[in-house]
Amino acid sequence: MPISASSAPSSSSSVQNLAHRGQPWAVVENVAVSESVRGQGIGTLLMEEAVRRARGARCYKLVLSAHQSRTDSHRLYRQLGLQQTHLGFELLLI
To answer: Closest by alpha carbon to 23, among 50, 49, 62?
Structure first.
């Protein structure tokens, strides 16, 4: 379920789950706001919309990952109530 603003594309999707009685969970990735308009609340609006859509899809949780260097983003996510719960790993396949 793509979410976008002209200066800040983002995407999210729900994932089926075997636990939690089969309830889906939401994944948000690629939250990006153009440097020239950062600090104007666009990231907050995008994340609020992602949460709204996840709730609408009856997801039991929403997860996202952010590069460890994106400390401003980490601060925003914490202000929005997200908690850092995992250490992430990735394997690039292409």
So the answer is: 62
2-79 is classed CATH 3.40.630.30 = yes
pLDDT digits (tens, 9 = 90+) for 37-68: 999 999 999 999 999 999 999 999 999 989 89
Q: Residue 80 is encoded by which pair of tokens?
A: 């929005």
3-class state of residue 26 by DSSP: strand
Token output for 73: 């983003």
In DSSP terms, 12 is beta-bridged to: 28
In this prediction the pTM is 0.74
CA atoms within 13 A on the CB side of 34: 7
For residue 63, the SS3 value is strand
Place of tokens 């996510």: 77
CA distance 58 to 86: 23
